[in-house]
Amino acid sequence: MTADSATRRLVEQYYDLIDSGDLHQACGLMAENVKFTFANADPIFGQESAEAAIQVVLDRCTAIRHRVVTWFEEPGPDGSVNANFEIRIRYDLKNGKVLDNPGAVFATVNDDGVFTEQRLYGDLNEVFAD
Fold first, then answer.
1. 124 and 102 in contact (C-beta within 8 Å)?
2. 30, 38, 97, 112: which has the fewest C-beta neighbours closer than 10 Å?
3. What is the pTM of this model?
4. Which SUPFAM superfamilies does its entry note (predicted)?
5. Does the domain at residues 6-128 carry the CATH identifier 2.30.40.10?
């Protein structure tokens, strides 16, 4: 698929909302029963749980910036789309450190254009180090 697909635009909108401080609106782009997984943590379910998990990371930051680097997508069942992409995340931490971490995301978007699953892989150890 092209880099300018509807799914890519959704992902960019999602991260732009998070980066601008509107986490609640970003999570509104998820299905009510979204399956959300951070790295090796157990999956959590639902918009509110996903928002709370992301907020834990944001609470450590004065600013955050996501940039999609590499993009792949393929059609899934029932009109869904599976997106797999490399991401760079800049964390401006409250302790003064600035990190630029790589990560990978596997996401599924349904035919209504919302996330039904997100699996995010990256090393958050430095984000949570004191």
1. no
2. 112
3. 0.94
4. NTF2-like
5. no
